[in-house]
Specification:
single chain, 128 residues, mainly beta, 5-stranded mixed β-sheet, 3-stranded antiparallel β-sheet, 8 strands, elongated
Length: 128
């Protein structure tokens, strides 16, 4: 049986990038060669993201924006966007425009997760 693999010429290693204070950036993996004319865009606009030299980073002073979950539940104000990056890669005199797409998510981190004491239950082998 034949086995075929599909390989992305450029990638962040995953198509879902989760931006948190502990993980504020991702680097683009691309083939060796000259990389120029880098183009980065997101829909909707994400002022909290920026890209430079193959690295997309969370901008803490960039404000909010993107697709926002505003249901009013515990997880309110999760920001996300559909993004793409492309550029011209030149290897051995041959140039081509390559790129990749990803989903960027910036969650609102909870300070604490609290439950009223009367809502907790225990089953056998669990301790509270």
């Amino acid at each position: 049986a034949d086995v075929k693999f599909s390989v992305e010429p450029v990638t962040f290693g995953t198509q879902l990038l989760l931006f948190t204070p502990g993980n504020p950036s991702y680097s683009l993996t691309r083939p060796a060669g000259d990389w120029e004319d880098e183009n980065f865009s997101c829909v909707p606009t994400t002022p909290w993201l920026s890209m430079s030299d193959g690295k997309v980073s969370m901008n803490p002073t960039g404000g909010e924006g993107g697709i926002v979950d505003n249901v009013g539940d515990t997880y309110e104000v999760q920001s996300a966007a559909l993004c793409q990056v492309s550029g011209k890669l030149t290897v051995g005199g041959s140039s081509s425009v390559i790129g990749t797409a990803f989903v960027a998510v910036k969650p609102k981190l909870l300070d604490a997760l609290e439950y009223p004491g009367d809502t907790l239950r225990s089953t056998v082998t669990e301790s509270i």
